[in-house]
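Quick question, first post here. What does this chain look like in 3D?
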Amino acid sequence: MKIRTITQVALMTAILIMLGLLPGIPLGFIPVPIVLQNLGIVLAGALLGSKKGTLAVLMLLILVALGCPFLPGGRGGIAVFVGPSGGYLVSYLLCPFIMGEALKLFSNKSQLVDFAIIWIIGVVFINTCGAIGLSVLTGIPLLKAIFSVLVFIPGDTIKAIAAVFVFEKLRANAAFRSNI
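> Answer (accepted):
Ran it through. Tokens below.
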């Protein structure tokens, strides 16, 4: 690997860790809090592309599996992968790859196209995986799990708008230009 690639992956992993240190906002009626870390997951795929973005998230998830408390609320350890957030963590690994590939295919068409890609993958896909994981791992009926994660859509849409703004500003930057 080139030093530039290692630096980009390490920097994005550090950003993901920092976003995970911000406390989640518990909702009470669902065991999954509102977090900012998924904004970083979206940016990993958008800014670094499919391979490097996925590698950055994989590094985060390996550290979490080893027990580092890098998820919101200071959570870490292998148990978080089989808890209520397990579906989200699986989607976190898939999201940068899908995001990077979709933006490679359709980017530079328009800001609206970038927003649509980021929203569909970063909001719909992540929350769908989260609902499926919530259902499978906690025994909540799937339809109830889907309805319970709908509460995240407005906040995640705001995060998607922020991600498009950051992506639009940084994709021309030489530090991020290699994949997009």
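Residues 13 and 56 are 5 Å apart (CA to CA).
Helices lie at 3-21, 37-65, 86-106, 111-138, 142-149, 153-170.
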